[in-house]
Amino acid sequence: MDEKTRIEAEAAAFRTLVNHLRERTDVQNIDLMNLSGFCRNCLSKWYRAALEERGEEITYDEAREIVYGMPYDEWKAKHQSEATADQKAAFEQSHKH
Predict the structure, then answer these.
(1) Mean pLDDT of the region 52-77
(2) Is the confidence at residue 38, as pLDDT, over 80?
């Protein structure tokens, strides 16, 4: 596979992942962190870092808006619930170093 095709496929996979996460508002970030070790915010940080490596400026809030499909505060108000004690305990257990 040539480089252009690989990059286009990776970009398409990224878009598919972002769209999937936008649609799955029932899945909380803490659940993603507990199961996979990353969440929408992590993806936003990685996106921002990738742009900055290429000399592009973007704020964290702008990157989150790209991933969430709306301003983070709006998404949070519409879709994010308070983490349960069990979710918090699972987070603490899975992130021990």
Answers:
(1) 97
(2) yes
Compute the distance between CA of residue 58 and CA of residue 67 in angstroms, rounded to an integer. Answer: 13
- Closest to 34 in 3D by CA, of 77, 81, 79, 89: 89
Decide: 77 and 19 in contact? Cβ < 8 Å.
Answer: no
CA distance 55 to 45: 15
Specify the residue for token string 């990059």. Answer: 7
Task: Identify the residue whose tokens are 């994010």.
Answer: 80
Retrieve residue 28's tokens.
């909380």
81: left (phi over 0), alpha (psi -120 to 50) or beta: beta
